[in-house]
Amino acid sequence: MNKQPLGVLARTLAATAALTAFGLAGSAHAQQGQPLDFAKLEMKTTKLADNLYVVEAAPGVGNVVFLNGPDGILMVDSMFPQLHDKLVAAIRATGATGPIRYIINTHLHGDHTAGNGLFAKDGTVVIAQDNVRQRMLAKKPDGTPAFPPANVPMVTYATTMTLHFDGEDIEISHPPAAHTDGDSIVYFKKANVMQVGDLPASLRFNNIGVDDGGSVDGMIADGKLVMKMANAQTKIVPGHLGPVVGFKEITIQDTMFQTVRDRIAKMIKEGKTLDQAIAAEPTKDFNEGRLSGNITPARWVTLIYTDLSRRMKK
Amino acid sequence: MTSARTPALLALLAGAALGLGVLAAHAQPKPAVTAAQPVDQVNPQPHPPFVANQLAPDLWEVPGAGSNVTILVTDEGLVLVDSKYEYHYDDLMKIIREKVSTKPVKYVIDTHYHADHSGGNTRFLPAGATVISSIRGHDNIVGKVQPGAPPNLLPANVAFTGEMRLYVGGKEVRLQSYGPGHTGTDVSVLFPHDRVICVGDLVHIGDLEKGGQYPLIDYNGGGGINGWIQRLNTISSSEAYDKVVPGHGTVGTKADVIAYRDLLERLRDHVSAYLRDGTKTEADLRNHLVKDEHWPDPGLSIVRSNHGLYMDLKP
């Protein structure tokens, strides 16, 4: 198996063009390891409410929710800098002409934050949970920050924030560590739209930031939490795919997470190695519709195995 | 309205005739009879020219009418803590432009929701600043909790509970929101590199003989005397600051935070002892505060604090 530290790999996946599309099985981008071709990505805009939209870098590279109105524009996440012009064009195509005032990052990974800098240099205020900033500025072995300082959020919160913008009330809350320890759930209360970042929502093998404070148990807990915070009518926007899902998809993901977690935990208790766990294909009955992108079943099993074996040792 | 409980300031703002009676009342152990009228929060009031005092190379204070305003200067813009009344906006910006900086105002922080501190929101928001308060501070302005506040007062557009941090022009600003205190909306703002903390009206400095000794405990706005004491215990246990900027009055030190905590503790213990036998009415407490504690009546502090204190501390 790949001996590269998982966190570095996860970040590399997310932060560089080595990322492949999270498209569905059979799509042109489904082939494993294929670099992301930004030129081929298509921006698809879906209207969620009167003044609220989601722009999807299709297939599956990322979803940006944006709110437009008299106060200007507020975005959730910022995609990659290579997609900046396309993203802005998609926003402007809806008739939104105002300044982009705020970006809220759902977590630190590059596919959600790498675009920050190009907006921030024009005055956009970037907001995230405290741990996002701390982890982005953490020093690598060579002494340089893990992420470019220009992309680091300049307003951070610990537990809860609300924004009041364009007549909308936006509640930003920090759930217990799940995908990372800096996750934010962004709830547009009047529109009843909730952007949940990379918490379990759309049908895929989610990356788990096991070296960024995330865990499989946190993912399971926060999937359930989303269903408590939202209601059956809430339009739930995941970080990838969708772009709108509901309790049905979260419940399906919840079942998969729990089932595969239990299978892998059992194998660890039985003394099985990681290679043996991968060979046992514990995701086999869940692969349909999810076989795509760099988070392959083997990668996903590796993430869960690593997380669980660390915790079970303690 | 908190400034109005400072008779010296009130005299300045509302006319000498009004203030004299209140000041006189302090000198004598008898009830004050002069009605301390609230400051007009909507219509411009005359005030002495604003001055800007430098607290550190990048930190300034504009004291005086309304509230104290603290200003951090960075290459990327200014951070203001409090903004006086809306009608002070032009004079405030004039002194900032002349003495402090011509950079844009990027962030404005409300130490609490009272309009003598948050009034400038109404002007800074349309000008493009991000205005920050506690979540309850936002909600109290929306709910028009403060009597006499300007009907057009705008709440913050960014609100938080717990901790928040700003990183502006290479400088860090730490915000902390609290539970019940002077109000239920109090926020402290620490400038770690300058070792200066702004505490709003959680602490009175320099006016303890001039009105600050009568705490306005805004129970309707979520305040409470026990919580207030706890807040000051928390703030006084921090080693992160040397200077303390109060919401009104003069800049002080941790000793002033402790002195005000002691004043509140003494008041709480005194009122609790007075109410202990369970026979006293709310009116009794009011008379007691006037006679034994020399609180001006009517005055904003007694009007706003008495009912809440009674309900809070009665057995």
The overall number of domains of chain B is 1
Counting DSSP H or I runs of 4 or more residues, the number of helices of chain B is 10
| Number of E-state strands of chain B | 12
Percent of residues of chain A in beta strands? Answer: 15-25%
- Helix-strand makeup class of chain A: alpha/beta
Descriptive notes:
The complex is a heterodimer of chains A (314) and B (315). With 314 residues, chain A is an alpha/beta fold. Chain A has helices at 6-15, 84-92, 110-113, 116-120, 130-137, 216-229, 247-269, 274-279, 297-313; strands at residues 42-49, 52-58, 62-69, 72-76, 100-104, 125-129, 155-157, 160-165, 168-173, 185-188, 193-197, 235-238. Chain A has a seven-stranded mixed β-sheet with strand order 1-2-3-4-5-6-7. In chain A, strands 8-9-10-11-12 form a five-stranded mixed β-sheet, with no helix packed on it. In chain A, helix 6 (216-229) links the parallel strand 11 and strand 12 (235-238). Chain A is globular and about 60 Å long. With 315 residues, chain B is of the alpha/beta class. Chain B has a single domain, classed as 4-Layer Sandwich (Metallo-beta-lactamase, Chain A), CATH 3.60.15. Chain B contains ten helices and twelve strands. In chain B, the strands form two sheets. In chain B, strands 1-2-3-4-5-6-7 form a seven-stranded mixed β-sheet. A five-stranded mixed β-sheet of chain B has the order 8-9-10-11-12, covered by helices on one side. In chain B, a hairpin with a 4-residue loop joins strand 10 and strand 11. In chain B, helix 1 (7-14) packs antiparallel against helix 2 (16-27) and helix 9 (282-292) crosses helix 10. The interface between A and B is medium-sized, with 18 and 17 residues. Strand 8 of chain A pairs antiparallel with strand 7 (158-161) of chain B, so a sheet runs across the interface.
